[in-house]
Amino acid sequence: MQQYDTNSFVASLHCIYNGRKMAVGSSDTLFSLDKNWLVLDGSPVRASGHPLRLGFEYTGRGHDRLHYHVHGLLPFAGQVGLSSHGYLGLYEVAVVSDYWKVEPLEHWSLEVGRELRCNLRDVLGHQVGIYLGAYLTVGAEYLTDFWLEVLEVGD
Q1: Which of 94, 104, 105, 115 has the highest count of CB atoms within 10 angstroms of its CB?
Q2: Looking at the domain 9-153, which fold is it?
Q3: Euclidean distance between CA atoms 131 and 53, whole angstroms
Q4: What DSSP string describes 86-123?
């Protein structure tokens, strides 16, 4: 089994969509139903203009997958959870107990400034992708690798 650095950390999330590297943010539109979904920057539902910083709290591991509870950091607080339709969002009130599986696709070493390529999966192992050119979902029409840009490393 491969050795991985398993500290908790803070990172921004990015992916390649339509040949462009795009950051992931939180939706912030005039419509309350569209708030706090994880979406691609530059999409019509991404209007806040602030980069999303995510905290990854290490909880364990499976075969070649690391398990984390993931939460947004201010000003976008809340646990990253899954809606009943498979959308990823920040939940401030609802209790989110499921962890997320991070599947490293290259050497995994937590260093500030390093970009780590990975797949993201829900607790059941379903891969996260992009739906309608904007939303992060499981069971998406467009699967992609993600990059975590490490901003801080904890103990």
Answers
A1: 104
A2: Trefoil (Acidic Fibroblast Growth Factor, subunit A) (2.80.10)
A3: 21
A4: SBEEEESSS-----EEEEESS-----TT-EEEEEEE-T
Residues 6+ positions from 3 with CB-CB distance below 8 Å: none
Which residues have CB under 8 Å from 119's CB, separation 6+?
A: 102, 103, 105, 127, 128, 145, 146
Range list of β-strands (E), the chain: 9-17, 20-26, 38-40, 54-62, 65-72, 78-82, 88-91, 100-104, 115-121, 128-131, 135-138, 142-143, 146-153
Average pLDDT in the chain: 85
Model pLDDT for residues 56-114, shown as the tens digit of each residue:
999 999 888 999 999 998 777 889 999 989 999 998 777 788 999 999 999 989 999 99
The whole-angstrom separation of Cα 147 and Cα 117 is 4
**Integer Cα distance of 22 and 41 in angstroms:** 6
Write the DSSP symbol of residue 154: -
Q: Which of 137, 35, 120, 133 is nearest to 84 (CA)?
A: 137
Residue 108, phi then psi, degrees to nearest 5? -110, 105
pTM of the model: 0.89
Q: Which of 48, 11, 56 is nearest to 151 (CA)?
A: 11
